[in-house]
Amino acid sequence: MDQLKHRTAGVQEKLEIVGVEDEAGNPISALTILSLLERVAGIIDNVQSSQQRMEERQQELESNIKTVQGDVLKLAKDHGDTSVTVDKLLQKTRKVSANVKEVRSRVEKQNVRVKKVESTQDELLTRNKFRVVIYQVNERR
Hints:
Helices cover 79% and strands 6% of the residues.
């Protein structure tokens, strides 16, 4: 048993780093430092992989933003084109409306004239001063 303790103590002494001590003043072994370095390396690997995923996500977001910007520009152009078309349609509608009002006015005036003619005709027919003659044209060849 003493030999085992002696061997373990010898190995322990070999693994101890000269001049490096923990807070309690005990020497720190190389295995402890190695395990800490492995943990730090693992943490760094995790940070790097997280950073890489974040960079990939950032690139994906930038691509999506560019796509959205392109769509917004296209939408703005289409909106401008639609606005111009709507303005033209409104101008045509105003012209048609003015023409309809003018035609309506003429039709109303003509209606008044027709009523005058009808009343005059009725008056003449009642006085028997006006006779309607119907001509028939017989064309035989």
